[in-house]
């Protein structure tokens, strides 16, 4: 038997070896493709999971945000109700206080001064003598008519303290040199010492009288001065306790 191999057998061996290599390459390529495909699937799966997590977190944040808004709205509504309730309480208290004040005995209006049974108003603005007389009449009063020394001292003190020279209800418009009050009564001779030194001097038709710093002064009626009104005080009738 010869040691040399049959050429046909050698060719068959070469063919088998080539086929095995080819199959191995195919198997390797198939395995590589499988692994590659599996890697893509895992990556896609991971991406899908991440999206779900982000979406879940987003909805959780949105829910927390909505809850916070609802809580704030509830607090605001509750605070608004409390404020309205407080305002209602204040209104009721003021109404009750006003009713109690109205029941108090006040002989004079709030912005008037009381002295010896009369009410006095001291203006904060200035007018001429005629307009001042009208202003007093509009509130049911008249320019002051002085009836006593005590009243004169009271009114003169108000003028000196405020430094507001003011009209009184005295003039000689009806007859020059004859001083008369707005209620028609004449000036008493005992009141002549209330004139300031050197007054009345009737310079330039000075027919109306004002309270000066030291006493009475005659002055032109067209000048602007503060004014004093006077009216009787309201008597208070107390309810008898039975």
From TrEMBL:
Keywords: Adaptive immunity, Calcium, Disulfide bond, Endocytosis, Immunity, Lectin, Mannose-binding, Membrane, Receptor, Signal-anchor, Transmembrane, Transmembrane helix. Its main location: membrane. It is found in: Membrane. InterPro entries: C-type_lectin-like (IPR001304), C-type_lectin-like/link_sf (IPR016186), C-type_lectin/snaclec_domain (IPR050111), CD209-like_CTLD (IPR033989), CTDL_fold (IPR016187). It is a single-pass type II membrane protein. This is C-type lectin domain-containing protein. GO terms for biological process: adaptive immune response; cell-cell recognition; endocytosis; intracellular transport of virus; virion attachment to host cell. GO terms for cellular component: host cell; membrane. The keyword Acetylation does not apply. One of its GO terms (molecular function) is D-mannose binding. The lineage of its organism: Eukaryota, Metazoa, Chordata, Craniata, Vertebrata. It comes from Otolemur garnettii. Residues 115-230 form the C-type lectin domain.
